[in-house]
Amino acid sequence: MRRRQFITALGATGLFGATGAAGARSDAAGNRRGSDVENVIVLIGDGMGFDPIEVTSVVHGDLSMQSMTGVGYTRTNSRSGEVTDSAAAGTALATGHKAYNGQVSVRGEEDDDDPTPLLTQLELAQSRGKATGLVSTTRITHATPAVFASHVPDRGMEEMIAEQYVESEVDVLMGGGRREFDDDLLARARAEGYEVLFDESDLRAASGDRLLGLFDDSHVTYTLDRDESIPSLPEMTAAAVDRLEDDDDGFFLMVEGGRIDHAEHGNDVQSTVAETEEFDEVVNWALEYAETRDDTLVVVASDHETGGLATGNDYGSPIDAEAIRNAEASNAAIAAAIEDGVPIREAVEERVDVELTDEDVARIADAREAEGPYALSNELGAVVSEHLGVSWASNVHTGPAQTVMAAGPHVDPFNGWIHHTDLSVTVAALLLFGRLADVSDAQREAWEREVVRNGPKGRRDASLALEYIGPVTDDVTEALDVDGNGVVDYRDVLLILEGDAPSSSAEAGRRREPIGSVHDR
Fold first, then answer.
1. What is the pLDDT of residue 408?
2. In this structure, are 241 and 359 located in the same domain?
3. Quick check: 376 and 367 in contact, CB under 8 A?
4. What is the pLDDT of residues 11-42, one digit of tens each?
5. Are residues 272 and 178 in the same domain?
6. Region labeled Disordered — which residues (predicted)?
7. Which of 185, 243, 238, 188 is nearest to 211 (CA)?
């Protein structure tokens, strides 16, 4: 069986024969300390491939994320194939399991209406007493935040995701998505102790420990079009940490720059850059926060690439950085102005510093008559991008590997190509144990024989079980699937850690999945 590939070069825990806590270390005075990682901040730039980072740096100068030295590459393919969606990519990042496109933190076949829920990193953090939070510029019920605290077979079930949130005990939930919470659900949220917030002034005045911020009806308005009534992503992040850091057991926070992806779907370069730049402000904030402590891990990742943005459409210096930097509206806002009767040339040129040709105006006019809700804004993206010096491959997701960066205790430069699932398990290991197990092949083989014979139990077995997260495929994974649901997931790891695993693996009725291709695991 292929063991997990871990992306961080971390020190040995001494789990074989250890008597102290994994990851314990000594301070300058020689006093023993506990686990190195108390707080985890996961920052996800949705759809943020390499080129959006590069183009944004051309426009705004080097980004904070480009200063990070722990950098690796994550493959993104899902069980559906080489091009993932945000639900499957997020499920891989949150649970360590591949999923079919559209599935939210569950394991099952593509059309399974009753799949197996998979414990997530956030829920793992909750089990250890940590405060938790989710922040996004999408609807908070959208795919990426949803995978960390809900379990549904279809990402479109946003009303159910909202209901699960209210019961989730997540301490901070902030983003858009007001439309998914009716009055009854908001009343239930308040009964569960949430202070419900609707605008920036509510956030500034908030006094509760548990916050539900719904700052737009649907997705949070693009930063280029946003007014001061809507808090920025950095403001939401700072407010979340201000609440979460009071927990003595630490916290887990996921922050998503979700509208990077939406801008890329529309080939909207000025919005892509503005959303990426705002996301990088959060990265900078998180890095500065972590620098003041020795217990905070910051992970920056993209779930997939969208649109196939190219850094430049010619040799030399084709990108009009000044025009992109000074743009005053997204293409969606420009399209809305055109639909409201503003002449095409005026609508575009008063908001972005480009000069349209008669042919450009004709193309945009034709798109206005085309079918589809995004035909006009997509054509605006194509036309404006040509003038701004970039090009695009599509209006949908693409499948290349993405970058992952990290800062914090025991994070060395990454190397090799791994999968989102491996990144997830690495973060889970740091959450639970502070460091990863370091054992020889001979020790591991002996451990596998032992766990098949006697069943898993205790800290050592739980730590090593993380390397086998996935479907049950052999005697070892069958032994580690202590709840007998056909998968090894973070729930099994917790049961092993807490001593609730059965003493023998000879239980009947467990499901096994055959080992298939890389897309089927």
1. 85
2. no
3. yes
4. 333 332 222 223 333 344 333 344 489 999 99
5. yes
6. 502-521
7. 243
- Here the tokens at position 422 are 């491996």
> Does 493 reside within a domain?
yes
**Nearest alpha-carbon partner for 253 in 174, 158, 162:** 174
- The predicted-structure confidence for 433-474, as pLDDT tens digits, reads as follows 887 667 888 999 999 999 999 999 999 999 999 999 999 999
345 and 242 within one domain: no
Residue 462: which domain range? 440-498
129 and 106 in a common domain = yes
pLDDT value at residue 438: 76
Q: What is the pLDDT of residue 412?
A: 62
Please check whether residues 85 and 194 belong to one and the same domain.
yes
Asked if the structure places residue 122 within a domain, the reply is yes
Helix (H) or strand (E) holding 475: helix 475-480
Concatenated DSSP letters of 273-288: HHHHHHHHHHHHHHHH
- The two beta strands, 305-306 and 251-257, are unpaired
Count CB neighbours of 359 within 10 A: 9
Cα–Cα distance measured from residue 368 to residue 360, given in angstroms and rounded to the nearest whole number:
13
- Does any domain span residue 28? no
For strands 296-301 and 39-45, give the pairing: parallel
Q: In 292-349, which residue ranges form alpha helices assigned H by DSSP?
A: 321-325, 331-339, 344-349
